[in-house]
Specification:
- The complex is a heterodimer of chains A (366) and B (283).
- Chain A is α+β, with helices and mostly antiparallel strands.
- Chain A contains nine helices and 20 strands.
- In chain A, the strands form four sheets. A six-stranded mixed β-sheet of chain A has the order 6-7-8-3-9-10, with helices on both faces. In chain A, strands 13-12-11-14-20 form a five-stranded antiparallel β-sheet. Chain A has a five-stranded antiparallel β-sheet with strand order 15-19-16-17-18.
- In chain A, strand 7, helix 5 and strand 8 form a beta-alpha-beta unit.
- Chain A starts with 5 loop residues before the first strand and ends with a strand.
- With 283 residues, chain B is an all-alpha fold.
- Chain B is globular and about 70 Å long.
- The model of chain B has no long low-confidence stretch (mean pLDDT 86).
- Classes of the chains: A alpha+beta (366), B mainly alpha (283).
- Chains A and B meet through strand 6, helix 2 and helix 4 of A and helix 8, helix 9 and helix 12 of B.
Amino acid sequence: MQNDKPILSISGVTKRFGASVTAVDDVSLDIREGEFFALLGPSGCGKTTLLRMIAGFEVPSEGAILLEGADISATPPNRRPINMVFQSYAVFPHMSVFDNVAYGLKVAGTPRGEIRAKVEEALSLVKLDGFAARKPDQLSGGQRQRVALARALVKRPKILLLDEPLSALDAKLREAMQLELTRLQKSVGITFIIVTHDQGEALSMADRIAVMEAGRVRQVAEPEVLYSRPNCRFVADFIGKINLFMARVVRAEGDLLHLESDALGHVDLPCPEAMAHPAPGSQITLAVRPENFRLGGEAGADDLHIPGRITDHAYFGGHSSLFVEDKAGNSITVSVQNGPSMLSEADKCDSLHIFCSKKDVLILPE
Amino acid sequence: MALFARRRLEERPGPLAYHRRLFLRLIFVGSLVFLYAPIITLIIFSFNNSRRNIVWRGFTLKYYEKALNNDGLIEAFVNSLTIAGVSTVISVILGAMTAILLWRFRFPFKAPVEGAMALPIVIPEICMGVAMMAFFIRIGWPTDLIWPFNLGAITIAHITFSYPFVAMIVRARLASFNREEEEAAKDLGASEWQTMRDIIIPFMTPGLVAGALLAFTLSLDDFVITFFTSGPDTVTFPIKVYSMVRFSVTPEVNAASTVLIAITIVFTAVAMWLQSRSSQDGR
């Protein structure tokens, strides 16, 4: 279903509210046809404003939004073949489930018989068969969300927008819905754009993710790339847990950087392609994911090792987080899988070595 | 023994079981008596077979007959209902539009406009009445029009003081409207008008019904402002009753009032039924 043709191009879009607030700052994105795209960021990063501009509720201050090559920046929302699932679901309370789903078809002048068939199809798509006559106040939150989904999908939009769709559901239901949404997206083949502040949600559902901060897009990539190769400190810190270490550039030899860090000691790492070679003496940030540290065992030829002691640990069922303090007093988080013997052995060690492979150390530009 | 202990526990009223406290029950019954005893007395004495209507002298329906045959009273009654009907319809339309204006739009001097709109609610009625009279005389409003146009001045005066109530009630209702519902309608392809008709007006309906009810009642029993704006040929029910009472309180007045009470009760019951039906539909 997926190809590389962009269905939606956002080019140089800026949105200002008043003179002082810039909610979206020069964002350019290409969204491919049939993909599940996520806009991820902390609250106030402009992701919802961007979504509202795609839906047509806000007009960009600068730049253009192109749908299949045509500029729709000034098209009102009711004339865009784009539909939205709202955060509050916005199910019409005075209408039955059927009338809610039928509304978009009715205002478009679809013949009655056709409406009935389409609504029933949409309701069964979201597994709400038999609920057509119910009123929204007889539905649970999860069911209301399905109504909102069916109502948007029945219009067969080119793009479906979802604004924090799972934030109001409890943890168990949220997980089930994540799976269902991805399945639904694959089966209908419509491009989905989801806004979320939950990185787990974005990682598990989306084909590609744009991470936003303060109105700007920091990185656009597949979930695996985003996690394993974040391009900046913000993305690294926002996606998952990560240990950050300050390091000083001693010198650069071709593509190889010689770095000095008080936690990791002397490290030489290849300079990332996207980064300009830093001048000797400048500061850069190194990052290591907690699960890339190992406790004890033998150090390989390419491994870094850090002596330290365990100050604390937190148990999460399948894994535990150990908080290791190195000689310089930096706290390092190490994630270990819980086996029968692992924790008790580590628990006892007052002083130990933790290891990590050099290839797992990331260099982050500021 | 255990059974006995449990019963004791059940008998003690809980902190929120107000209906089980004697003191509060007495207050409840007392307030009902003070509220309704005069009205019930009025209704009972409308069947009293006595001209002076001070002592009960047996049951009769003749004062109902007399009231029905009193052309002046019937005319006043029809006038009142006409004024109330017309002013309610116009007040609801104006009030709803004002509420939407204040809820939706930002414009310069919004706060003063909002305050000015609520002014007829707080201005003493007597001042409103005098002002209205002075105004209609100043602009030379014609007093010799044929029915129902001769009720124009009173109707306009009634609209003036009842539409702010409608606007306030509808505004309060709109404050709890989820704007995403409006956006959802537009997102699904509805135009501005379709959104208004299909989403916003159904949401406002309970407020509109309550506002209409209030406007109707306010108009029906207004005396002061009507007194100043009515001419010799435009007598409303309260003014007619007042002039009748100046001679003597006959059961005829009671009978006419009882009919008015009955009409009001029926009207209120219908409105409440409509409202409960629409609130079942929604929230």
